[in-house]
Amino acid sequence: MERRSAGIHYPGSFGEFQTWFQSDADCLDYLEWLRWPSGFVCPECGHAGGWRLGDGRFMCTDCGNRTSVTAGTIFDRTRTPLTVWFAAW
Ligand SMILES: [Zn+2]
To answer: Where is each Transposase zinc-ribbon domain found (predicted)?
Structure first.
């Protein structure tokens, strides 16, 4: 794992934070990028490649497994907006 740098891998200031994460979609994009830096990889079968579903989840194009980027994280099944979680970090 390469070292993470402020301004590249995470916001370096609160102003930058607000620019990066204006909506839950921005937060999800960021989580996706952290989890799958080079694109979706199925956690079930290891197949690289999937469709993003309308609800923000991914479906593996090989085995059909559906997963969300927040599965297994503190963001899973939370009703708290992601922007609030991110601000609390
Ligand atoms: Zn799969």
So the answer is: 23-65
